[in-house]
Amino acid sequence: MRAPEFWQTENGLARLLSPIGAIVGAVTAGRIARAKPVRVGVPVVCVGNLTTGGTGKTPVAASIAARLRTRGFAPAILLRGYGGKKQPVPVRVDLSHHTVTDVGDEALLHARTFPAFVSPARDRAALAAIADGATALVMDDGHQNPGLAKDLSLVVVDGISGFGNGRIIPAGPLREDITAGLARADAVVLMGDDPRDLASKLAERLPVLRARLVAGPEYSSLARQRVVAFAGIGDPGRFFRTLTAAGAQVVAKRVFDDHHEFDAADIQPILDEAYELDALPVTTAKDAVRLSPDQRQQVNVVSVAVEWDDPAALDRVLGHAFRI
After folding, report:
1. CB-based contacts of 323, cutoff 8 Å, min separation 6
2. How many CB atoms lie within 10 A of CB 302?
3. What is the pLDDT of residues 152-190, one digit of tens each?
4. Measuring CA to CA, how many Å separate 312 from each of 66, 70, 78, 309, 315?
5. Which of 36, 63, 87, 126 could form a disulfide with 306 if both were Cys (CB 3.0 to 4.6 A apart)?
6. How many degrees, rounded to 5, is the angle at CA 98 between CA 94 and CA 101?
7. Which pTM value belongs to this model?
8. What is the pLDDT of residues 81-104, one digit of tens each?
9. 278 in the same domain as 298
10. What is the CATH number of the domain that holds 283?
């Protein structure tokens, strides 16, 4: 689903829906309080957030896994597999076999680089990953999932959208109460620009790690090129801004719901428009895994990576759980 605009402002509709949000928050808090998290014997870091939509969790999780690998760990990624089938047993993602309808788009992205295990039961996925040889586990999402004990919990916050209007779904973008969610975190990863000065406010409670998404190597070929950009991710605007920052001329934008399952009726008009505008059709790596092989061949796919303002600060935070 696409986040409604009223989630970013204080308005009558948000106030009207607020009692429902309070119930959602109470249910989440109760579920977390009653849980008995399972410890699995290897360090576990959770990269989560307090809001729905895109904050950069997936690239942050990949960056942390890569950092652990360079320090001698064998990391595996744990995911629920949003957008895929509910798996009855933990599944290690096999790129030669699984599709986005099986395991979801984020799992396919991670599986290109790391062992990725999908299951709604994170403790069972963790045990499967350990049996497969993992010596460190990185959860992509799961801050509100209490089944697996975490040695380190990082909350990713988008610097521009922040916590929106500060209300819980459906009145706002929050999955839970801000104070309660931050109380279970060890640090905040603040992504991108910070026009709200969230860094100084959050630093009163927790260590704040500053990071940003940077263009992958594919972007260099788009400098001074006309592009038709499309995306079905949590924050398509961030993708469009990254294209512009890389020097591309974005002549048209097409936005789809997060995790949208593309078909020919979605993609062919974009290809036609790009041809008419003498432009290149461009999308994200996360969207590309939801395209058919034929569609993917006709679209320019670009990736993003995480750049940390202070890598030493990240290592200090990771060191509490991983002794690096």
Report:
1. none
2. 25
3. 999 999 998 999 999 999 999 999 999 999 999 999 999
4. 15, 14, 25, 9, 5
5. 63
6. 145
7. 0.90
8. 887 787 788 999 999 999 888 998
9. yes
10. 3.40.50.2300
